[in-house]
Amino acid sequence: MTALRIGLIGVNYAQVTHLPAYRALAAEGLVELVALATARPETARAAADRHGVPRAHVGYQALCADPDVDLVDIVTRPSLHLEMARAALDAGKRVLCEAPLAPTVAEGEELATAARDRGFVDMQSRFQPGLAELRRRVRDGYVGRVDNVAVTAFYPTFTTEAAVAGSGWCAEAVHGASSLRVHGLHTADLLRWTFGELTDVRGSAATREPAWLGRVAADSADSAAWTARTADGAVCSVHTSWVAPLGAGFRMVVHGSEGVLRAEADGHTGHFPVRLCGARSGDDGVRELVPASGGPASAFEALARALAGGDTAGVPTFDDGLAALRVAAAVECGPAA
Prior knowledge:
This protein is α/β, with parallel strands linked by helices and 337 residues long. The chain has two domains: 4-124, NAD(P)-binding Rossmann-like Domain (Rossmann fold, 3-Layer(aba) Sandwich); 125-295 and 316-333, Dihydrodipicolinate Reductase, domain 2, CATH 3.30.360. Helices cover 32% and strands 27% of the residues. The strands form three sheets. The chain has an eight-stranded mixed beta sheet with strand order 8-11-12-7-13-14-15-16, with helices on one face. A six-stranded parallel beta sheet has the order 3-2-1-4-5-6, sandwiched between helices. It holds the Pfam family GFO_IDH_MocA_C3.
């Protein structure tokens, strides 16, 4: 099998998951990171040297035009995704875009239309073994009729110096990120993937902490709560925050007519391993079904492995990214047109 040749736009966030995953897959001959791009010559060359990437491009346009790149991986703030993804698609590339796909539904629609079958979104939580097993058991009838799904995701992210230093731009709503649009949309994708399309979405989002660490002005929504109905009529609730200093992490509980499933992680499911427990009527109690295992890059590595192997059936597409944006729009200002 020929290795998938990848070009990376943006390096900062990619150092946590994308670059380690590509190194592991390159060692197996599955991918080759052939180029990267940043906005300035000095940062592009330094990053390429540091990570052993053959070519350093200045600006995304040069990378998108590189004939040796098969797939463009966009790891930048959402407000830049439209122009970057459009350039890559116009050049005939496949595209993997960081979530959220875009800052607005309108831009998401444009990208989904342009991509057809060439656009994928990095909503890698689907590739956590605990969450994949939850989906399988729900669909196999482990809990019977699904009646209620409750999700909480409380993280201390932007109460920490490291997060603010590395991704402080998330404080500004103009860049397209918020607790709802990042962690909340990963959860929305998991709900759609597991239970089908969501309807009757309604909720509220707010900025509760206007100054991160007392010095970084913030106007992006840091807290959100919303409800929805699944395709089969079950009631869902989701409550998220990324400024909860003592946040306990992620928890999804599925209550059905014949059982319960509980998925838990110490942090964002894109990076933290998920433990799955469950019980059926008549059992002595809840038992562990899938232990938490893996590291920060494991879920993304599994997603990238699927792309490299051509097994893309489970990889979130631009259409999935657009559907998640519509959930956010419904929470923020009513159903999207």
